[in-house]
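User: I'm writing a short report section on ligand binding and want a predicted complex to refer to. Could you take this sequence and zinc ion and write out the structure as tokens? A short remark afterwards would be nice.
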Amino acid sequence: MNSDSEFVQRADTAVYETEEPVLYGVADGIATLTLNRPTVNNAQNSQMTYALDDAFRRAVNDDLVKVIVLRANGKHFSAGHDIGTPGRDINKSFERAHLWWDHTNKPGGEYLYAREQEVYLGMCRRWRELPKPTIAMVQGACIAGGLMLAWVCDLIVASDDAFFQDPVVRMGIPGVEYFAHPYELNPRIAKEFLFTGDRMSAERAYQMGMVNRLFSREELEAGTYALAAAIAKQPRMGLALTKQAINHVEDLQGKRTAMDAVFAWHHFAHSHNELLSGDKLGGYDAKAMIQANKTAAGERG
Ligand code: ZN
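Assistant: Sure. The structure tokens for the complex follow:
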């Protein structure tokens, strides 16, 4: 049986609520990239991913930019990957940043495998490795796909009302695609974080060393930019080499190869879900995940 012959291409039905999912600005040697889908809690669609990639490239290419701050408009940093807004554009083709082929007309497991090589694993590695220091400024929710955006940054500054959560084990999936969990947290805490899918407070994340600095919501912006300004005083090449050195050590500790292995398990889980239920996410869309999170939080009190 040739699955290609049975494959029907899915329609691209996305309706965007904005043409500017990422805003860009530069002042005093600091580039600011702002996630700008506040009405959907900055859910990350491909439109946003590619806009973010463009913005990072712009900041790298601008010699006046020393440091990059990634922040978000609205109450929350990011609710994660877009799994249910009108702007969900998973079936849309984009001008790709890597040499994986277009996924939209591909059958079976190839569809998500090709897509996530590009927009999740590929993009996150690109952003992690760009040669200028990056700071994530996190308020409110930072969930699943939101973690990827914070984790690829060199530093994370959070408000004390921020929280971190990766509830995708409920979908039968071992964590979000950029599997940095045991590097961001110690392995036992990473297991607890994933097994329960519970929220981790900014305070706990700070204690774990995942967050560099904590501020009240009112002081978050001033605190973040003071840190960025201090870093911006350092020489460009010194910063780039230091960043490369530490990223290299992390990779020698297995971060990169670990992520490759877990990416394969992640895709086994997507395919297993599809075999069992016909749905790669195990039947969970955004609404179902919000409901399940509420129920789980209620049960724990
Ligand atoms: Zn996935």
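A remark for your report: The radius of gyration is 19 Å. Strands lie at 22-27, 30-35, 67-72, 134-138, 141-143, 155-159, 163-165, 200-201, 213-215.
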